[in-house]
Amino acid sequence: MKRSLFSIFTVLVLMGLILSACGPGATEAPAPVEPAAPAATEAPVEEQPAATEAPAMVEKTVVIGFTSSLTGSQEVSSKRQVNGLNLWMQQVNDAGGIKLSDGTVVKFAAQTYDDESNKERVQELYTRLITEDNADFLISPYSSGLTAAASIIAEQNGKIMITAGAAEDDAYKTGNTSLFQLYTPGSLYLISTVDMLKTLDPEAKVAIVHENDKFSTAVVEGLKPYLESHGFETVLEEGYASDTADFGPVINKIVESGATVLLGGGHYPDGSTFARQLYERKAGLKFVSLLVAPADSKFPELGDAALGVATSSQWELVATHTPEEAAVLGKEWYGPTGEDFAAAYEAMTGDKPTYHVAGGYTAGLVLQKAIEDADSIDPEKVKAALEAMDIFTFYGGIKFDTSPEAHGLQVSHQMVVAQWQKNDAGELVRQVIWPADVATADPLYPIPAPQ
Amino acid sequence: MKLWNRYSGLILPVLVVAALAVWPVITGKPANRESAFTILKAVALASSLNILLGYTGYVSFGHIVFYGFGGYVGIFLLTEKGWSLWTAILAGGAASGILAFLLGSAILRLRGAYFALATIGVNEAMRAFINNFELFGGPTGITLNFSVYRDFGGAAHALQTSFYIGAGLALLALLLSYIVRTSKFGLGLLAIRENEDAAEVMGVVAPRAKTWAYVLSAIIPGMVGVLFFFKNGNVEPHDAFPLHASIELLVMVMLGGQGTVLGPILGAFAYQGMRGYLVTSPIFKDIQLSVSGALLLMIVLFIPAGAIGWLRHRVPPLRRVLA
Amino acid sequence: MQQINILLASLPDGILLGFVYGLAAMGLTLIWGVMNVINLSHGPIIALGMFGTFFLFTRLNLNPYAGLIPVAIMGLLLGVLIYVIAVHRVINAPHLSSLLATFSVNMIIIGLGTAVLTTSPYNVDFSAGSFKLGSATLLGTRLIAALVAMLFTGGLYLFLYRTRPGKFIRAVANNRSAAELMGVPSTRILALSFGLGTMLAAVSGALIATFFPFNILSGGSYELKSFVIGVLGGLGNPIGALFGGLILGMIEGIIPAFLEQSWVPVIEFGLFVLILLVRPSGLFGAKK
């Protein structure tokens, strides 16, 4: 008897779940999930008409929709990107929003879900963001793979999507018109690193070992012809699976190939492991450049294994872009200085900003600028403003390709090469080593051998 | 009335699928359409798996291999060879069917857990192989150009069309499931499930019947794969052969009741609906997997026949309706 | 020539790893041998073992090898708990039931683990030095891990063949109803066997954590490896699992010398299916 009672209970639970599952869509819109942004607390207040203010002022809350990877392989970088975006949103709302000429005051609210670093859910969640949560503008998820899936939803609904952590070129060459890229495209990632090698050691023998995914492969496809045209010999080229834990066999191959320089990597988890094992196995390379991982502020947790590891960075605080630079280039300066941005970020999170943070912040900043330029939140006008945009921020130049073949591809932003070095106190710090005019330190070349 | 008696087992499943297909049209919300598509996809896959799992009694842990393989073949033909979506879907189904035929004659000799392990191995080997297979784009897969949606009047219409095709495939899957279930061939499968050796003695040619059941359970997943990746815009090895999705399919079949036509449909509906709800619910978002797991455990331990099996057992008059 | 050098460098590493893989697989195959259950919560338990080492090492500053003892005890208790809650009721049900029951345990652990520990990579920053053997660099952590794995294998062997509970386990594995007739408390023995299986998984995880980074999802790939090894060595044959692990380790050492590393899983799983087809009892023969 007890058993059958329990069975009935279980069936009831099941039925309840079925009902609750169709409930949200069929009956009424669900209460919006409390946005993660600090700005969220202000949202309800804004809903009330601002009766006490001047009657011409109309507050309008613009919903920015995005998914982030709270779990899964892209977690580390994705969270930083979201932190940056949240900081921007907090700042713009605290400053009273954007005031348009017709008296509208635009404020922002975030609507976000966890995509689990899983492409399958991304499309459903972005559709939900657009249709149920009425998101006005979209920010991309982190990583090229997730963005490719999300961009289709943006495109079919005519929603603008600013892509932050999505460098791979191909996504912008599929006939899209709604994507706008902030990162320097993947195929150009290692160009400046090769330029630097050319001056340091033209005889270097290069091993290319990279994660087998969209982004890293795009980087390598751009890298190979450039290496060749600069007369470098590539002695090994190999891909590894994203979840590789044991780099031992690969490192043995690098050593046997006689390579002196390693270019490659992928994302955070594999890159940090790779660096650690290169050190443990005393691979003895003169120079190591890995994608993404060394740009994160968690990287020095590797200790001495981090020393000398370089990365291509979209932005570095120590070489942040300045209004003077903009003036020299004759471009319009927009937004805060890098120091102000970094100070605000440290006050919010207690952490130094990385380029993923800066990317997330700039995504918001670019949207803000476009709304100001368009003097409207009408998507078509904002899109026109984005297409016409040619500005300079602390993060660097922002200008989008407008040709139908590669619409939205970033054409102005430039990358730097950063390397982990020891300062006088013996602490690991990330120094900019290239291009020479913004460098804060000389390249550490070759990397000193571990004791 | 006569018709009702004859096809009563088919009516409820068709109604469920039809309701799912009509729901987004009535509400006019694309978000509902996406949710319904996810559920319909699960219905089609779970119903297909049920032919092998529920009727024949073979536990496949890697059934998603047919979804991924068919999807890859279809998308390859679509982008590289310029085939239309319709022919690509058919080709994807055919490719999966052929794969199942070739595999089936080998691995269906294994029984019980050995078969389950072999299907895991096949799925992982296939994923690793496609990862190295340059013709299919290797690890980065194949990305569609937006121009393929132009034939459908733009991306928005293409997604709408995809939804209707998805509903059609789900309907097809349940019809197939019903036909197999009520046919003599299906009776042979049920006999194999109960006792394979005895079935052979009774004149069921088990190897042949099993192989055909395997092929039938593979075709629709292949077609669904093509459709899903067409709608998704790209296909990568990681997304095409997710092992956990295979296991989720088992959960759906189990939840609703294996070996019944309606069971997998309800199971797919409940599981996907529940997950869709938990993932976006602020309370359960972080532990949604645990909640799903705990629920699954309760069902396995206390109502192993699934919801439909339990109802059939408890309320005999329903047996006619709940086939 | 270059290939030979790579081979010489990678093979010793692969062999050392093979012992640890073998230890993990031994846990899986022991459970299968005794109660015909494939434990799909094997992977998350390996991951929990990894976290066990991590927290003992970072919070209590316990040496990872001293930490093996509490990890093993926790693994044993966790296994008994899982058996009582999830497995006992379906022990005589069709395979699907026990597969799904252990899979739901997998989901529960992964779900809670993700919520509490996130999926960021963790590292146990511990080094036992390294030394050169010819052209190969051997890491101290891996050498010790291989030794520990051998110790545990020996211990398991002695337990199964020299102690009373061990003999009971073998009796239950051989014929449960006959063992019950002889007065063997089969439920307790089954729970103990399941606990031993998860203990081995947790210990192997604890060892792996000393040289590879991990998160709560990391166990999955070692679970798959355990399947391959279990089949290579013969499901239900714990000692065969150690040899299966060695073979897998060697494959991982040999293949990268001749092919890109990404071909390793193709060959591993291809071999897995092939062996299931031609010799389902494994290369070293199983009991059944």
Based on the structure, what is the oligomeric state of the protein chains? heterotrimer
Summarize the biggest pleated sheet of chain B: 2 strands, antiparallel
Number of domains of chain B: 1
Strand order of the largest sheet of chain A: 8-7-9-10-11-15-16
Identify the most extensive interface between protein chains: A-B, 54 and 54 residues
Instruction: Say which CATH homologous superfamily of the largest domain in chain A is assigned.
Output: Response regulator
Percentage of residues in strands of chain A:
15-25%
For the residues shown, what is the average pLDDT of chain A?
85
Number of helices of chain A: 13
- Residue stretches of chain B low in confidence (pLDDT < 50, at least 5 long) are none
- N-to-C series of helices and strands of chain A: HHEHEEHEHEEHEHEHEHEEHEHHHEEEE
How many beta-strand segments of chain A? 16
CATH class of the largest domain in chain A: Alpha Beta
CATH architecture of the largest domain in chain A: 3-Layer(aba) Sandwich
How do the helices and strands follow one another from N- to C-terminus of chain B?
A: HHHHHEHHHHEHHHHH
Strand order of the largest sheet of chain B: 1-2
